[in-house]
Amino acid sequence: MSETVADRPGLYGAESDTAAQRTALTSGDIPVAVYGLGKMGLPLAGVYADVTGNTVGVDVDPAVVERINGGTSPIQREPGLEALVAETVEDGSLWATTDGDAAADAAAVHVVMVPTLLTTDKEPDLSILDEVVSTIATGLSPGDVVIVESTVPPRTTVDRVRPTLLEESDLEAGEFGVAACPERTVSGQALADIRGTHPKVVGGVDEESTRVATLIYDAITDNEVLATTDAATAEAVKVFEGIYRDANIAIANQLALYAQEMDIDVNEGIDVANTQPFCDLHDPGPGVGGHCIPVYPYFLSGQFDADASVLTAARERNDGMPAFTASMVEAILDDDGVDAETADVLLLGVTYKANIAELRNSPSIPLADELGALGATVWAVDPLVEDWSELEPMRPRTVDEIDGVSPDVVVLATPHEEFTRLDWERFDAPILDGRGVIDTQAVETPVYTVGGRWP
């Protein structure tokens, strides 16, 4: 280890005791940089700023940086975030920049929170992560620690991040720390999750990295910090969580396919089955969307030399739900004496999740394609979608324009808060409630559910 490590404003290899290091972190003596200010990155940067008093956020989008430095949040419907950004920017704890090199040069704690996308071949695309890590390497100093909060395939931190930092910085192994500390947050409750809804998982590439990561997150979260054996295990924990949900939802969706044949409401069967403590079936629905659950199975399948048939089958089942939902819509129309080729379908909700402005992998998009292929006219309403140019065959309408549509069937795909206040009787049409949120006892109009009894 370099003799200068203890003299630098860092935590890795520092000679002071844990209490002194924590004081240095929370008093602003240890500058922090958070790379990526999206839906998860900005809440994370806000909490870091609130705790440390010295955090810079880095993003490639000048408009995002400008808004944050103006004290406003570019992220919609994230409770508490607008106020936190305003407070931390005003007191100087948080500021934003597009200059990653300068941020890397100044920081001693580097937190990476950028998305891992998939290529068209369903391969993990780590190009954004690679760019950020290379940027960090230009300013890496002895005593620094690099924390990967991004969800990545297991072994990415030890096999990809650390080697890049060693190759592109002028430091040697043992002079800086690297740890995987995957986020466990959900849009719409990100601040609460970061501050401690769940235990925080950390794992370093060496014991000192794990120690430093534990120290940092013990200050960030009010919950327990769980230190795993190594970085790869910490990465795997997050991937396992997503895969469990994907497979569980796939089982529920598989059961939904039997509803018509058994002439039962599968949802009722699931609810009753879950009264037994060893059963925890999720709910069936029109599909699985977002940047997490439908993506994480590909962080294992094809990346390691192991059979992935269960993961593949779950993905196929969930990817097939928009077509199944469209078949239910067709059956509802047929029962009502309406030909799908001439039908007007009102699709409520296009983003993948309620009150979240995210279209990535949203099942509403292939659902609209399936309905369009049947010949139906698809009128779509979503208060969070601003650009409809690539959402054909949907014909957009605002919430205020709903009364201008006379649908033959209504499909509630994403229950935004605007929709939960609707008078469902106003449509005078059957409803397919894709998420099971409508109180059927209070509605005389026929309401069907995915996995419920068919017409």
Describe the structure.
There is one protein chain. By secondary structure, the chain is of the alpha/beta class. The protein folds into two domains: 5-229, 3-Layer(aba) Sandwich (Rossmann fold), CATH 3.40.50; 264-455, NAD(P)-binding Rossmann-like Domain (Rossmann fold, 3-Layer(aba) Sandwich). Helices cover 38% and strands 13% of the residues. It is built from 16 helices and 16 strands. The protein has helices at 18-26, 41-52, 62-69, 81-90, 100-106, 127-139, 156-168, 190-197, 207-220, 231-256, 259-262, 266-273, 309-319, 321-335, 364-373, 417-420; strands at 32-35, 55-58, 94-97, 109-112, 117-118, 124-125, 145-148, 177-180, 200-204, 225-227, 344-348, 377-381, 395-397, 409-412, 431-433, 447-449. The strands form three sheets. Strands 3-2-1-4-7-8-9-10 form an eight-stranded mixed beta sheet, sandwiched between helices. A six-stranded parallel beta sheet has the order 13-12-11-14-15-16, covered by helices on one side. Helix 10 (231-256) crosses helix 13 and helix 14 packs across helix 15. The longest helix is centred in the middle third of the chain and has 26 residues, at 231-256. The chain is elongated and about 75 Å long.
